[in-house]
Structure formats: C-alpha cells, structure tokens
Write a structure and sequence with these properties.
This protein has 13 helices and 21 strands. It is an alpha/beta fold and about 425 residues long. It has three domains: about 1-140 and about 265-310, FAD/NAD(P)-binding domain (3-Layer(bba) Sandwich); about 150-260, FAD/NAD(P)-binding domain (3-Layer(bba) Sandwich), CATH 3.50.50; about 325-430, Enolase-like, domain 1. Strands 1, 2, 3, 4, 5, 6 and 16 form a seven-stranded mixed beta sheet that branches. A five-stranded antiparallel beta sheet has the order 17-18-21-20-19, sandwiched between helices. The chain has a four-stranded parallel beta sheet with strand order 10-9-8-14, covered by helices on one side. The chain is globular, with a radius of gyration of 23 Å. It starts with a strand and ends with a helix. The relative contact order is 0.12. The protein binds flavin-adenine dinucleotide. Flavin-adenine dinucleotide (FAD) binds near residues 40, 180 and 297.
C-alpha cells in the first residue's frame, strides 16, 4: 500500500502529526520502537510532573499549619508515589493509542529504518517495506553524555533511571543545573535527600531570566540544596565526584549521581525550512530532532505546521513565543526575550517589574512567599518578554505567549478584562 504519510516516532511530534493527518482523511502509518507518547509521556514531562506534584502535596501538608490546618504525622510513601506515576503514564499512553485508532492511524511497533534521499520515501520495519508520498521524522533526542573521566565505569543515573528509582537515595549529586536537573533537585530535596547541584555556568537554568533564576536558586538553597556554580565535574569514581572551580579541586561524596547536562537530537545537523521540510521536500522533521527548543509544545506546533503544509497551507513555524517552564514550587516561567538576549542583540528595552504580592490571590494562597512578574517592553510599547516566579507561573505564561506571538502592545493586553481575584492580574498590574 502507498500511504499519504509515514511517520517515524510516536512522541508529541509524531502522534500529533498522525492524529491531525488521519482526521483530515490522509492514510497514515506511524512507527514507534518503544511506547507511544515518546519521551514526553513515558520518561519526561508527564512522569516528572506527576512526581513533583506528589512532592508539592507532601510539602503543602507539612506547611498546612500556616493556613490554620493541623496535619499530624505527615509522611510519604516513595513506592506509592512511583506507582501512581506509572499509573498516570499508562493512562495517558492508552489515551494516545485511542486517539490513533479514532484517527484511523496504522500504528506499527518496531524500529523503522528509511532512505531519506529517495523522492518516494521507503521505510522498513519488522522485515516489511512501506512506501509513502511524504515522510516525517519525529525520532526525538537522547541524553547528552559529556567526556568526564571515569563516567563510563560508573553506575550513574540519567533522568530515565531517576524516574525508575526503587528507593530514595540518602544523597544525590546532580551534574547540570538546567531545567531537568533543577526539577529533580527540587523533587529529591523535598523528600529529604541531600542534594548537590554542579553547574558549569555562573547561574542555573541557562536561557531563563537570570535574575529570576538566581531568586529561585536562593529559595532552593534555603531548603538545603547545595549549588556549585561556575564549576566543572572533572572525574567520577564510584560515589566520588571531583569538581573544579578556578583551578581548585574538591571531592564530593554522594550515594547517587544524576547526569543531566542536556539532550541532543538523535540525528545531528538535520536542517529544516519554515514548513519543517528537510532538503528532500518530501521528508519533514519535527520535534527534538530539529534541535531548536527540545520542548514538547514546540514539537506539537512543528507537527501542526508540517501537516498543514502537506495539506496545502502556507503557515510558517514561529519560534517567537515558545514558553519555558520549570515546575519547581515556586514555578518559574518565561516567554519571549530575556534581558540577556536583548542586551546581546543590542535591542533597547524597558523593564516593568512587580512583586507577586501585588496580587491579592497570590497573597491569599502563598503564606510567607513572594515572587516576581517582570515584563520587558520595546521603547514603542511592544511586549518583548515576560518572566514570572511564583505559582502558578506555568499557567500565567500562556497569556504572555499570546500577547508576544500576536505582537500585542502593553495597551492591547491592558484592554483585556482579567478575572478577579486571580494571580494572572499581576500581569495587567505590572504593565
Ligand atoms: C526528564 C524530562 C523532563 C521533560 N520535561 C518536559 C516538560 O516539562 N515540558 C516540555 O515541554 N518538555 C519536557 N521534556 C522534553 C520533551 O520530553 C521533549 O521535548 C519531547 O518528548 C519531544 O518530542 P518528540 O516527539 O520530538 O520526541 P520524543 O518524545 O523523544 O519521541 C520520539 C520517539 O521516536 C521513537 N523512535 C526513535 N527512533 C525510532 C525508529 N527508528 N523507529 C521507530 N521509533 C523510533 C522513540 O522511541 C520515541 O518514542 C522533558 C524531557 C525529559 C527527558
């Protein structure tokens, strides 16, 4: 059979493309070598957020007295947390499977190989050959492993193993203070594990607003996480980690090591145009494989653009307003330009900033906590970037993403009526 579209990879990019194309009446075959849902559902976004929610609930119970509630003997059950995480993953993966069935997508479980240079893409899987008019490569990314002496011979965790942990380690050293590293740091720290984070850069969460990242780091330090910034891990042996800062070395002992220095596309150097087409116009690539933002929501949008293009639309992919979120508590989220990127690009800007305590709802729900809403505006009033520290930043950032994507001015956004009392009002107040 000649399919309209063959898709390799069943993560957010692949399953979104498959569902959209199937619902539009195209014949679609989707190849997945592990589990539908990809990294995001099985070992990324969903399991981490499920565990972080357990940790947040535990912390809320411990803090309940601040809100006039007594909770005696607050305790957690690590095995139950993990079991619930697995249940959530299973439920969502089953949901993707049903969506594929409803959209008439043929799902083939197996590792696919393909010739991406042929005008009519050829795919092989499980000893069978498939032909399609269009091919979409949605095969994702993998954990980057830096050349650290002794790492090969060490039993270290990546995010995958950390999510399968059978028991809480007594101490954990995380190599890399990016989003994934910091989310794991927050999770394990909340449960009482001694956490150390070693970051090569001078601040955690590279790419996020630096001022807000520093505030989050200060908060996490107060809770006991030890940070080593501008510090390199030079060697690892058993449970010992050698770190180096300004030419001085130090030894850290830790019962577990989590390597979290980033992810890299499975295929290097793949180039796509604004419709997600590779050099072969019949072959598209979407998601982490493109290496652009390595986020599930970007993967979904890229898949929408690619399928739209195959169906004859001319909408182009825009990376102007890709929100980034760190799901710690407090959350930190940002969209658009940061002060650091604006300065690098030589763009003049105005900073408008307010503490979250200007929002009545925030004060009502966050005893003894504060946060920040920072809005960066061009000199002619366009919103260039919005950065938030405080719960629920992950939800509020969507308002900002809409304004930035649609190139609204502050006046445009101010003309919208925000419900009261909501934490989102802080955005209107800051403008
Ligand atoms: C711990 C962790 C936490 C994360 N948290 C977030 C978050 O909170 N928010 C967010 O936006 N992003 C998060 N991410 C990133 C997110 O998971 C990825 O951006 C997203 O999964 C990318 O989707 P994708 O479709 O490009 O690739 P993937 O989800 O990686 O899917 C690719 C699929 O292709 C399959 N595949 C590969 N090769 C073949 C082959 N030859 N044949 C058949 N199948 C193949 C793989 O098995 C895989 O299932 C997180 C990642 C990790 C690791």
């Amino acid at each position: 059979m000649l399919y309209d579209i063959a898709i390799i990879g069943g993560g957010p990019a692949g399953y979104t493309a498959a569902e959209l194309a199937g619902r539009r009446g195209l014949s679609v075959v989707l190849f997945e070598k592990n589990a539908l849902g990809g990294v995001c559902l099985n070992e990324g976004c969903i399991p981490t957020k499920t565990l972080l929610y357990s940790a947040k609930t535990y912390q809320s119970a411990k803090d309940a007295a601040k809100y006039g509630i007594s909770c005696n003997e607050v305790a957690f059950d690590f095995a139950k947390m993990m079991a619930r995480k697995n249940k959530v993953v299973r439920k969502l993966v089953a949901g993707i499977r049903s969506k594929m069935t409803a959209a008439n997508v043929e799902v083939v479980i197996g590792e696919a190989t393909c010739d991406t240079t042929a005008a009519m893409p050829q795919i092989s899987c499980n000893g069978n050959d498939y032909q399609a008019k269009k091919l979409m490569l949605c095969i994702g990314s993998e954990t980057a492993v830096p050349p650290i002496a002794g790492l090969d011979a060490t039993d270290y965790w990546t995010s995958r193993e950390a999510l399968q942990a059978n028991e809480l380690p007594e101490s954990l050293t995380i190599i890399g203070g990016g989003v994934i590293g910091i989310e794991f740091a927050a999770f394990f720290n909340t449960l009482g594990c001694r956490v150390t984070v070693v970051e090569m850069l001078d601040e955690i969460l590279g790419g996020m607003d630096k001022e807000l990242s520093a505030l989050l780091r200060t908060e996490l330090s107060k809770r006991g996480i030890v940070f080593h910034l501008s510090t390199k891990v030079t060697a690892v042996k058993d449970r010992q980690i050698t770190i180096e800062k300004d030419g001085e070395t130090q030894l850290i002992e830790s019962s577990r090591i989590l390597l979290s220095v980033g992810r890299r596309p499975i295929v290097k150097g793949l180039k796509v145009n604004e419709f997600m087409q590779t050099e072969n116009p019949n072959v598209y690539a979407c998601g982490d494989i493109t290496g652009y933002s390595m986020l599930a929501h970007t993967a979904v949008r890229e898949a929408e653009i690619a399928v739209g293009h195959i169906l004859g639309a001319s909408e182009k992919m825009s990376y102007r307003a890709i929100p980034a979120v760190v799901y710690t508590s407090p959350e930190i989220a940002g969209v658009g330009k940061t002060e650091e990127t604006l300065q690098k690009e030589g763009i003049a800007y105005i900073v408008k900033q307010l503490p979250m305590s200007y929002s009545g709802r925030f004060v009502a729900e966050n005893e003894l906590a504060n946060g920040v809403c920072k809005i960066l505006e061009s000199t002619d009033g366009k919103i260039l970037g919005v950065h938030l520290l405080g719960n629920p930043a992950s939800e509020l950032v969507v308002i900002a993403a809409m304004a930035i994507e649609k190139e609204w001015s502050s006046e445009d956004l101010k003309s919208i009526v925000f419900p009261h009392p909501t934490v989102g009002e802080i955005i209107k107040e800051t403008l």
